[in-house]
Amino acid sequence: MHAEAHPAKIRALIVDDEPLARSNLSVLLRTDPEIGIVGECGSGAEALGEIRIANPDLLFLDVQMPECDGFDVLELLGRNLPPAVVFVTAYDQYALRAFEAGALDYLLKPFDNARFELALSRAKQKIRLGRDRTQRLERVAIKNAGELCFVKIAEIDWIEAADYYACLHVGPRSHLLRRSMSELEEDLDPNVFCRVHRSSIVNLERVRGLKFRQDGEYEVLLEDGARVRLSRRYRKQLQERLGVRRDLAEDA
Q1: Full-prediction pTM beyond 0.70?
Q2: pLDDT of res. 189
Q3: Same domain as 81, residue 66
Q4: Residue 55's pLDDT is what?
Q5: What does the chain look like in DSSP terms, one character per residue?
Q6: Which range marks the domain in which residue 128 is found?
Q7: Is position 143 within any domain?
Q8: How many domains does the chain divide into?
Q9: What pLDDT, on the 0 to 100 scale, is given for residue 4?
Q10: Among 1, 93, 203, 234, which lies 20 to 30 A Cα-Cα from 114?
Q11: Is 1 within a domain?
């Protein structure tokens, strides 16, 4: 008998410059077993970096924040918006602009539990529908010396940037694909592939372990013997995806 697959949790990120507001949202979200909180940010600038790393499905975003407000965040993200964005603010005059910017809902503080549940329900529905429609990349076509060959995504061990190309490492062979790392990362299944460096993506199923180097950095050890540098920027994300407790990683 095969175990029934559980759907992946919806990854939520909270962005608000008020600690109490972040805490309130966190408490509400943690009561829902379908939601996993991937982070909390106290500024728009911090949120930009965290969104690009954590790749959340659901973003609760405050409008008024110093230096970089909620609208700045969406504008700077461009087309890389999370599937569902819910604005949270004490000011109702931004509602129309929020929907024009791509927000799914607009929570006006103070809101009650019923209003929050309505927004969350709408967000969950949109995210689930999007996941059902998404067809993940299963193979890529490689042109080489006048020939066209196909590489199965599931067989890729890791990917590294090579000028204007991405180098796909598949067992003892490597293939050059004219795609950027960012484009590939968008198409790859985030449950299987993880960015570990600005120039490297690894297949999580090929990760054998992490090695702590003398210079204080980590390397990702793969099943084929390859060692891929892990940058500080992506370390937390990889550890979470691998289920590594922070204290174990620090003791390594």
Answers
A1: no
A2: 84
A3: yes
A4: 86
A5: -PPPPPPPPEEEEEE-S-HHHHHHHHHHHHT-TTEEEEEEESSHHHHHHHHHHH--SEEEEES--SSS-HHHHHHHHTT---SEEEEEES-GGGHHHHHHTT-SEEEESS--HHHHHHHHHHHHHHHHHHHHH-----EEEEEETTEEEEEEGGG--EEEEETTEEEEEETTEEEEES--HHHHHHHS-TTTEEEEETTEEEEGGGEEEEEE-TTS-EEEEETTS-EEEE-HHHHHHHHHHHT--HHHHHH-
A6: 10-133
A7: yes
A8: 2
A9: 39
A10: 93
A11: no
